[in-house]
Amino acid sequence: MPADTSHLYRKARIVTEQPLQVVRSWLAAGLADFKAHLPVSLAYGFGFMVLGWVVVLGLQVSGLSWMILPATAGAMLLGPLVAVGLYRISRRAQGQGGSGVAAPGQITLVSIVMMTLALLWIRVATLLFAVFFGLRPFAGFLESLSTLLETAEGIALVLVGSLVGGLFAALGFAISVFSFPMLLNRDIDGFSAMGLSFNATTQNFWLMITWAVVVTILVALCVATGLLAAIPVFPILGYATWHAYCDLFEGADHGA
User: Fold this and answer.
1) Which of its termini does the chain have fewer beta carbons within 10 Å around, N or C?
2) pTM metric for this prediction
C-alpha cells in the first residue's frame, strides 16, 4: 500500500486567541532565537543590509532612483525566500531535525513564482511612472522624492501606486508567508504549499492582517534608518515567521 501522505497537506488551525497577543508571542520566540544564535543572526542581518545598499546604489548609478521605493516593496515579496536559512536554525533549535530541506526543488519553484511577481510589480510601477510623468528624468532619489510628494502628478502616482502595490503585496504575502517554511518541513509540491499558505491567511484574516502591519512597520523602520535596523529586525522576523508556521500548522509552537 502507498504511504499515507495526508498529514503533509494538513491545513492551518484557526486561531481564536487575540491577534496582537499571538503576534507578540511569535516575536518573543523570534527574539529568543536571535539572542540564542547571536553571531549567525547578526551575520544574516548584516548581509541583508549590504544587499539592500548594493541594490540602492545600483539604481542610483543607473539613473533609476525613482525605482527605489517600488524595489523596496518588491524586496518584501522575496523576504520569506531569503529567510529560509533562519527557518532552518529555528527548526534545529527546536530539535525537529537537522539542516536539511524537505522539498528543495519546490522551494526553487515558489522562488521563481515570487520573483516573477516582484518583477511584474516593478514593471507595473514603471508603466505607472510613465503614465504620470512621461519621459521626464529625475536627477536623484531626493529629487524624485520631492517630486512625488510636492506635485499633483506625484501625489496621484503615490496614491495609485500604493493601491496597486498593495494588491501585489497582499497576494505575495498570502501565498509565501507560510509556503517557504512549509517546504522546508514538508515534502509536498510548491503549488499546494502556496495554496495552504493562502488558506491559512484567509482563515486567520485579522491575525494575519495584524502580522502584516507589524512586518510593514518594522520594514519601514529599516528603511528609515538606512537599513541599519535590518541587522536585528530581519533575523528576528525570520525566526518569528518559523514560529508562526509551527503555531498554525504543526499543532504547537515547540519553541515557545
Assistant:
1) N
2) 0.85
Split into its structural domains, the chain has a count of 1
Dihedral class, residue 134 (left if φ above 0, else alpha if ψ from -120 to 50, else beta): left
In a domain, 11, yes or no: no
> Angle, to 10 degrees, between the axis of helix 190-203 and the axis of helix 205-224?
100
For residue 254, tell me if it sits in a domain: no
Structural domain contains residue 12: no
Place of cell 536585528: 232
Residue-wise pLDDT tens digits, 122-158: 788 778 877 877 766 655 555 666 666 777 877 888 8
| Interaxial angle between packed helices 68-82 and 38-61, expressed in degrees from 0 to 180 and rounded to the nearest 10 | 150
203 domain-assigned: yes
Predicted local distance difference test score (pLDDT) of residue 6 = 77
Got the DSSP string for 155-205? Answer: HHHHHHHHHHHHHHHHHHHHHHTTHHHHHHH----HHHHHHHHHHHHHHTH
Query: Residue 47 belongs to what domain range?
Result: 17-88+97-249
Amino acid, res. 244? A
